[in-house]
Amino acid sequence: MTLDERVRPVIARGAPAADRRRRTLAEELRLQLADEIVRGLLTPGSALDETDLARRFGVSRTPVREAIRQLAASGLVEVRAHRGAVVARPSEERLLGMFEAMAELEALCAGLAAERMSPAERRALEAVHEELRALIQGGDPQRYHEVNEAFHAAIYAGTHNAYLAEMTHATRSRVRPFRRAQFRNLGRLAKSHGEHDRVVLAIQRGDRPGAAGAMRLHIMKVREEYEAYAETV
After folding, report:
1. Helix (H, G, I), strand (E, B), or coil: what is residue 14?
2. pLDDT in tens, 115-140
3. What is the mean pLDDT of the chain?
4. What span, in angstroms and rounded, lies between the C-alpha atoms of 32 and 135?
5. How many other C-beta atoms can be found within 10 angstroms of the C-beta atom of residue 229?
6. How far apart are CA 44 and CA 85, in angstroms?
């Protein structure tokens, strides 16, 4: 089944309110276009015409416009006044800056979570961590990515600092296409889970410096894995 064919059923069915994991249509389009950009199927400088994309996916221009806006926030697309949107690729310097910012924010969240998480929150984090462990055998990068988002969100919530959680989530969203791509590397799911092991252990022990350090190393490893992936496409 092609990526386009996976998008269309979502368009036809709509998204039940009870299914929290179902992404919006704009998000589905953004994920597919981000995937094509990161893999090099849409090359830098390629025009992203809203009408053409709407026709390709069989949708209106509204979700296409929103998907392009989201891609621009990640630096994958450049929107030019009176010239429309074109595929871009963040400079190495900008991408490094994005990952550095995310590493520090995530480290702060992990450290605070180690101090502030309630027993129930710690058990919930452990449950998500174990779900990720089970997914490694299946070798499904997309499903691992989705549950991985829940893992990090549990840590953000554990800070009991809504402003920090919001800021970290926003930064993480900007880096999402690059984080998602690195899960295609051979053996990456197991390595990622091993990095999570060290974060979870430190949080469960209430070790703030240990949790922060483990999370910082994890995020910078994600950057290295993305760079390794980018060299192959």
Report:
1. coil
2. 999 999 999 999 999 999 999 887 77
3. 85
4. 22
5. 18
6. 11
